[in-house]
Amino acid sequence: MKDPVTARRKTGRPLSFDRDAALEKAMLAFWESGYETTSISDLTAAMGVTAPSIYAAFGDKKRLFLEAMKRYAGDPDDLEKAFADAPTARHAVADMIENAARLFTGEATPRGCLLASAVATGSKNASDVREAAAQERCVIRSIIVKRIESDIERGILPPSTRSKVLADLALAVTQGMSVLARDGADRETLLAVAHASMAGWQSQGA
Fold first, then answer.
1. pLDDT single digits (tens) 53-87
2. Is 122 helix (H, G, I), strand (E, B) or coil?
3. Fewer CB atoms inside 10 A, N or C side of the chain?
4. What is the 3-state secondary structure (H, E, C) of 34-103?
5. Cβ atoms of 182 and 176 closer than 8 Å
6. CA 56 → CA 31, 52, 75, 169, distances in Å?
7. pLDDT tens-digit profile of 100-119?
8. Closest by Cα among 32, 50, 28 to 40
9. CA–CA separation, 160 and 186 (whole Å)
10. What is the tens place of the pLDDT at every residue in 12-23?
11. Whole-model pTM?
12. How far does CA 99 lie from the centroid of its chain?
């Protein structure tokens, strides 16, 4: 009688692999080439696993991307805590934009922002992927708005401060820096943009 374990392996049962490490590699592949352009064969090569293993561990390509995107975006609770712990909303936003400038020009990662570049497509097949990326940005926006409004209530910022405008400015600058990074802008250039963007707070009464 055949060993059942041996029999299962011979029928193509996927070997175990480090799921977390594979997800990290998938994230980098999507970050580099975008959602639709990255094929399953690209992912198997990047992750070092077979297509059946990808489907078994993550589901289809779309679900793999959504999980990779969540990994990239990080836990929103961590961002909310960072904003709450910062001396002011202005400090928190400045740190966020400067960190983005560094992330977008990392030596070991693709240039730009995964949320911006990976879903830059007009295909109807990727509409729910674009919506998921937009939702991630909405979460970030709400965290920024919440901290600005807290500073208004505490008298750190004047009542005339337009919290949503400042939050949108921060997101617009961040996404714009992603485009610049993709076009070849270096870190010094992006940090200069990040610093200049904070002048907008003063014009809003901040």
1. 999 999 999 999 999 999 999 999 999 999 999 99
2. coil
3. N
4. CCCCCCHHHHHHHHCCCHHHHHHHHCCHHHHHHHHHHHHHCCHHHHHHHHHHCCCHHHHHHHHHHHHHHH
5. no
6. 22, 6, 25, 41
7. 999 999 999 999 999 887 66
8. 50
9. 36
10. 454 478 999 999
11. 0.85
12. 12
Question: Residue 174 carries which side chain, given as an amino acid letter?
Answer: T
Higher pLDDT, 117 or 171: 171
Q: What domains are there in the chain, each with its CATH number? A: 17-70 (1.10.10.60), 74-203 (1.10.357.10)
- Tokens coding 124: 């109807």
Among all chains, which residue has been given the structure tokens 């926006």? 141
- Locus of tokens 């963007």: 197
List the structure tokens of 82. 């960072």
DSSP string across 159-174: TT--HHHHHHHHHHHH
